[in-house]
Amino acid sequence: MSKNRIFSGVQPTGSLHLGNYLGAIRNWARLQDEFEAIYCVVDLHAVTAPHDPKELSRATREVTAGLIASGIDPARSIIFNQSMVPEHAELSWLFNCVARLGWLNRMTQFKEKAGKNRDQASVGLYAYPVLMAADILAYKATHVPVGEDQKQHLELTRDIAQSFNSTYGLEFFPLPEPQIFGSATRVMSLRDGRKKMSKSDESDYSRINMTDGADEIAQKIRKARTDPDPLPGTVDGLAQRPEALNLVSIYAALEDIEIDQVIQEYQGQGFSTFKKALADLAVVRLGPVGNEMKRLTAESGEIDKVLADGAERATQLSRPIVAEVREIMGFLDPKKS
User: Fold this and answer.
1) What is the DSSP letter of 37?
2) What is the DSSP string of 272-317?
3) Residues 265-312 pLDDT 10s
4) Most buried one in 178, 246, 263, 305, CB count within 10 A?
5) In angstroms, how far is CA 268 from the centroid of its own chain?
């Protein structure tokens, strides 16, 4: 096994947007140079809430197209959809018998997603973090790129790995480390700078989709909420201006520069000028990605081949690991009987 194996996944729910690109996917492409990389379209996670089967199939292909268009090379990294590798579901059940209710009761994401209707939430939504642990540990991944909202789930993964190791007196699973990006950007809604940009937001003007055309990108940035003041002379001047900070942060991320460099260039200018510059930059950076996504999704056979090849390679890695887990836990192997 590679000393440095990274695993991450993205749900095929809704359309990929600028936040997914700047916060995760663009960085995943860069990690191919440092790690043995495994990237999964987590369609089993997507069915923890009500879903449209046709939409799930479409979104799975679109997300795959987004990964490839953003620079993730299927020849260098493994790209597959979760449901095609049954070891994920099997290991998740085995980990359900290792994890503790108290651990899951502390997961804040379940409380947020279930809201007031907790009794109506699916068991799958409750056990979501256990499946996430199985996703990671089925490959003995050593690193996981995580955002702020996933740190608690990674800690649970480490707890499950440690508990399994302790229970069976082996150092079998590694305790995966978070891979933190210095360049990762937390992209906020274009309509409310205090809320994260989201696929689920009712307003399409709250986000820039990765498949948006030049006119759509420019219009959404032009209509993005701001305040009446010009750009300040220092980064500190953005502290109480969430919408202004969001747009400046997006510009810095797209240009791969620091926020203070953006401030130096545009200080004192109004948002009409800055928004035009931001729109032009976003079109240049996202335009080729969106065009390639559209080309790939129009040729679904190409995407399906990538997913099938990736699933085969993922199975070759995960099957012996999960088989060893079964043996450690005492299950009979008919092949050895």
Assistant:
1) E
2) HHHHHHHHHHHHHHHHHHHHHHHHHHHSHHHHHHHHHHHHHHHHHH
3) 999 999 999 999 999 999 999 999 999 999 999 988 999 999 999 999
4) 246
5) 36
Least confident residue range of 141-145, 148-152, 210-214: 148-152
Please give the positions annotated as active site.
Answer: 113, 196, 199
| Per-residue pLDDT at 151 | 80
With beta carbons less than 8 A apart as the criterion, state whether 189 and 156 touch. no
pTM of the entire predicted model:
0.90
User: pLDDT digit string (tens) for 19-74?
Assistant: 999 988 999 999 998 899 999 999 999 998 888 999 999 999 999 999 999 999 99
3-state helix, strand, coil in the chain (%, to 5): 60, 10, 35
Largest pairwise CA distance in the chain: 77
Strand partners, 40: 9, 80
- Distance CA(11)–CA(154), nearest Å, equals 17
DSSP codes joined into one string, 202-214: S-GGGS-BTT--H
- Cα-based distances in Å from 40 to 7, 180, 247, 272: 8, 19, 30, 40
Closest CA to 271 of 315, 314, 232, 234: 232
Question: How far is 307 from 61, CA to CA, in rounded Å?
Answer: 9
State how far the Cα of 201 lies from the Cα of 165, in Å rounded to an integer. 41
Q: What digits encode the pLDDT tens for the residues 62-77?
A: 999 999 999 999 999 9
